[in-house]
Task: structure prediction
Amino acid sequence: MAKHFISILDWSPDQHRAALNRARVFKQGREDTRLPGTALALLFEKPSLRTRVSFDMAMYQLGGHCIYLSPAEVGLGQRESVRDTAQVLSRYVSAIAARTFAHRTLDELAQFGSVPVINALSDQEHPCQALADFMTLEQRRGDVKGLTLAYVGDGNNCAVSLLYLAAMLGTNFRIASPKGYQLTPDQVARAQELAARSNATVLLTEDPAEAVNHADAVYTDVWTSMGQEAEKEARTRIFAPYQVNEALLRKTKPDAVLLHPLPAHHGEEVAEGVLYLPQSAVFDQAENRLHAQKAVLATLLE
Result:
């Protein structure tokens, strides 16, 4: 039984499939799970739109309650240690969803707390986003096994979670990143182990055209994330050849799906207007965060 959701690797392929099925049923309005009396602490070191609202509404619709804790209110590791925070919150709430700069903060919350911990984003992974991404891909393209998902851009937290989940579910994963911004050898090796079991493939390249060639879906993300503002000028120059535009999309399958976790920097990682093309599913992705979050919460708190 799942205890935490800190990494995609915390759950088995079967658990992920069950969560995706459950999220779909939630979206259809046919899931009647209710969690009255439960409370979720949203422990955020970074601001958010989709993550905060989707968790808040997910708990509301499940009959529970959310408590938002900003950096000023907690000061993790500064005003109060992570260990103490974990033990205190465990006496008050049913689960903790933490959005942190350092992944080790989540591990420490799970180590010293006694309630489920959910990764609402860290520097290493974004598993809740990946679950919503694959829910969206299933809605647009059906069974994801055997499909090819191409990621263009920085080998960041979203890319890592997508890589692992694709490998688990049998989706071929290609990623095009410039040198110095690629997935680590350890991440790739772990994914290749998983892909071998699901008959999927993993391809790393520096060429966006090679990655998206005849792909079923193209995924991109911002070139400069929160906490990397000092690198913006250099990153903009390095990633310029990795923009997803209509010319690049023409190399995919005609019915390929465009995915982006948002927020987007229009004119940078995506050309102006591209997110509003018919093949774009980015706003379905945003909506599906709510349903995927409900599936995660129901799985952990029932």
Summary: The beta strands are 39-44, 65-69, 95-99, 117-119, 148-152, 172-176, 202-205, 217-220, 257-259. Residues 128-285 form a domain with the Rossmann fold fold (CATH 3.40.50.1370).
